[in-house]
Design brief:
Layout (H helix, E strand, L loop, with lengths): L2 H20 L4 H8 L3 H8 L7 H11 L3 H4 L15 E3 L2 E5 L8 E7 L16 E8 L1 E6 L2 E6 L3 E5 L4 E5 L6 E7 L1 H8 L3
Antiparallel strand pairs: 1-2, 2-3, 3-9, 4-7, 4-9, 5-6, 5-8
Length: 191
């Protein structure tokens, strides 16, 4: 084993703990989702034992990240992100990066108004940021509506009931949205 491999292995435990804590999971929660024991999880996170592939695979699945990212393997190859778009409630979400448990960016495509489902307000802890790439969107915070056109941006506290939709009847609107952990779960749950 090379010195670089040893260094990667030494850093796995703290990375496992950081991912678990970022998702707000306890060792018991994680054990229930992976089939690993609480004791094994604790020993992995404190680097008392070296992880095996059989242990890392379910952890990577729960954390929603590739195995090489979980262990911080040295970067190589093609840096492009190849993630599939997700369709939900008439919208198309195109991930712009790999979900690391905190902030995640998406290109969101809103169909023309006639194709949108009825407004459904959401409220959750966190913040949301958006930038309009094309078209025009309507952002409603509580009862205050704001229309944003291409080139405009908005940021807001997501504890305020909010809804975003296309403001135009005939053309789709596209935005870049950055969601915190709670917003990502809410917008893309059950997908």
């Amino acid at each position: 084993m090379t010195m670089a491999d040893e260094t990667v292995l030494e850093r796995v435990g703290p990375r496992l703990r950081a991912y678990r804590q970022a998702l707000g999971l306890t060792l018991s929660d994680l054990a229930a989702q992976t089939g690993l024991t609480v004791s094994t999880m604790s020993r992995l996170e404190t680097s008392q034992i070296r992880p095996t592939l059989e242990q890392l695979l379910p952890l990577a699945r729960v954390y929603g990240i590739p195995l090489d990212e979980l262990v911080a393997a040295p970067a190589h190859g093609d840096p492009r992100v190849h993630l599939r778009p997700v369709r939900k409630e008439g919208l198309t979400f195109v991930p712009l990066g790999i979900n690391r448990g905190e902030l995640q960016a998406f290109k969101v495509i809103y169909p023309a108004v006639a194709a949108l489902p009825p407004a459904k307000f959401h409220s959750h802890p966190g913040r949301e940021w958006l930038y309009v790439l094309s078209g025009k969107i309507r952002l409603v915070l509580s009862e205050q509506a704001t229309e944003l056109s291409a080139g405009e941006a908005a940021e807001f506290d997501t504890r305020v009931p909010h809804w975003i939709g296309n403001a135009l009847d005939d053309i789709p609107a596209e935005i870049i949205a950055i969601y915190g952990r709670q917003g990502g779960r809410l917008h893309l749950a059950d997908v």
